[in-house]
Specification:
The complex is a heterodimer of chains A (260) and B (206).
Chain A: H1 9-30, H2 42-57, E1 61-66, H3 73-91, E2 96-100, H4 105-119, E3 131-133, H5 138-152, E4 156-162, H6 167-176, E5 180-185, H7 191-197, E6 200-203, H8 206-215, H9 218-247, H10 253-259
Parallel strand pairs in A: 1-2, 1-4, 2-3, 4-5, 5-6
Helix pairs in contact in A: 1-9, 3-4, 3-8, 5-6, 8-9
Chain B: H1 4-22, H2 26-63, H3 69-89, H4 95-128, H5 133-149, H6 151-156, H7 159-195
Classes of the chains: A alpha/beta (260), B mainly alpha (206).
């Protein structure tokens, strides 16, 4: 009897290969070997502009890490962006409002923003009341965010993380109050809403690249190269599968292998 | 040590959870189940943290009589009613608690959800304005999808439903799957970076 869970043999070896590639690139970067450049992400470049605009207007920056739980990778990815946004806000003496839906995320975002203000040498400027837990109910959270936006009129609205049906409600209200909006999610069903309603949109895996892109840390940048290798492998499997399905429709060995 | 201890714990627990997805052993199953329970317990304590945060902000608002302070009272009354009825009913599936939920929260949630129809219309109006070549493609595709989805579209031209089906099944699915594959890989790489302590955004620094 196999010790593998049913259908997990191929995923295990594919994931092992992928993790090995990630570790290889991290080790190359640590040794100081050359790591290829990564393409520009306009949405992340625009963060500076958005915070600058809020500073000039004397209005706050609104940040939402989405409604995903803390064990959602999109929520974890949003923390890197929050750290950067909070540091910029601390540097320019701009208020930052963070609205949380998950109670677990609340203390983490509090700590990230507090640390950002400490790192910028302005711990006294940190306002604990601006890191808000609104509700763990999806639409109560959305209405809470809408209320915050309408009352506090943020000049910049950053929404990065896992978003579902509330995405358009929040993005449209942000658009109506004239905030510069930067949004990103890996939930494909919500991407069209963000593309339509926001000034900049991080699509899919771009939200996971934020930490590396904003910090410019070579180790993290190397990690992104491994991500590209993974995409190339995925594309290669799709192409090979398409060729097999086209020319030998009855040959299912690739599908059988992936299902093992 | 303050930073290293949680990273080390995270690495061990994360590896156990990842491995338990691939392998089937009695020990792993027990450990995974125990970890899931710990997560649920921690989650419930976190709920308390959330409530303390909400209370602190709204008590301050009531004390200082800030604009809209009456709504903060409504919030506390709402919490109190739900807690009292919940404990009295004994279970969240009890008819009294269910009635309270269906009579208050349910309609409010539906109201927020129904707002989406209007927001979709205003967002679509902006997105479909022909400013660029991409916006033109979007407009044409959206028009075909909309006409292909309603009976009048079929009456105008029987090809609309066929075109709709083709757009959704091929270009749309291909694009979506591409984004999904990349997002999954990105999520896995992020998980590995966090487990290894390379990305420490959640600890207050990138």
């Amino acid at each position: 009897m196999s010790i593998f869970e049913k259908g997990m043999v191929a995923p295990f070896f594919l994931e092992l290969f992928y993790f090995a590639a990630v570790l290889l690139m991290i080790s190359r970067a640590r040794k100081g070997l050359k790591v290829p450049q990564i393409q520009k992400v306009p949405g992340l470049d625009a963060l500076e502009e958005a915070i600058g605009r809020a500073t000039e207007m004397g209005r706050p920056v609104f940040f939402s890490p989405g409604i995903g739980a803390v064990n959602n990778s999109q929520t974890m990815a949003s923390f890197a962006t929050l750290g950067h946004v909070a540091r910029q806000c601390a540097r320019y003496d701009t208020a930052i409002i963070v609205a949380n839906r998950t109670p677990f995320v609340q203390p983490i975002t509090e700590e990230i923003v507090r640390q950002a203000f400490v790192q910028e040498g302005k711990p006294e400027a940190y306002v604990a009341e601006n890191i808000r837990f609104l509700s763990d109910d999806q639409f109560a959270y959305a209405s809470g965010c809408v209320g915050l936006m309408l009352r506090d009129r943020p000049a910049a609205n950053v929404m990065i993380g896992g978003f579902w049906a509330e995405s358009l409600v929040m993005a449209e209200v942000g658009s109506q109050i004239g905030a510069i909006q930067i949004a990103g999610t890996a939930n494909t069903a919500q991407l069209p809403f963000f593309v339509a309603a926001c000034d900049y949109c991080l699509i899919g895996d771009e939200i996971y690249a934020a930490g590396a892109y904003l910090s410019r840390d070579p180790v993290l940048m190397g990690n992104l190269i491994a991500q590209d290798w993974g995409k190339m492998l995925g594309t290669a499997i799709v192409i090979v599968g398409s060729i097999i399905a086209t020319f030998t429709p009855k040959a299912n060995w690739l599908v059988d292998f992936l299902k093992k | 040590m303050r930073n290293e201890a949680p990273i080390f714990l995270g690495l061990i627990v994360g590896l156990v959870v990842i491995i338990s997805n691939f392998f089937r052993t009695a020990t792993l199953t027990v450990v995974r189940s125990e970890l899931d329970q710990w997560y649920m317990i921690a989650l419930n304590f976190a709920m308390l943290v959330g409530f303390i945060n909400v209370s602190r902000i709204h008590v301050d608002k009531i004390n200082k009589k800030r604009e809209g302070w009456q709504y903060s009272i409504a919030l506390f009354v709402g919490v109190l009613v739900f807690v009292v009825v919940g404990f009295a009913a004994g279970s969240s599936s009890a008819p009294r608690f269910q009635w309270l939920f269906e009579a208050t929260l349910d309609p409010m949630q539906s109201t927020m959800f129904s707002l989406l129809a209007f927001y979709i219309a205003s967002a679509a109006y902006r997105a479909f304005r022909i400013r660029t070549r991409e916006a033109t493609v979007l407009l044409v595709a959206a028009a075909i999808i909309m006409l292909g989805s309603v009976p009048i579209g079929r009456m105008i031209w029987s090809f609309f439903p066929v075109a709709r089906s083709w757009i959704l099944s091929y270009p749309n699915t291909a694009g979506m799957r591409g984004i999904q594959v990349a997002a999954v890989l990105g999520g896995m790489a992020t998980a590995l970076r966090i487990l290894l302590g390379i990305e420490r955004g959640y600890l207050g620094g990138i």
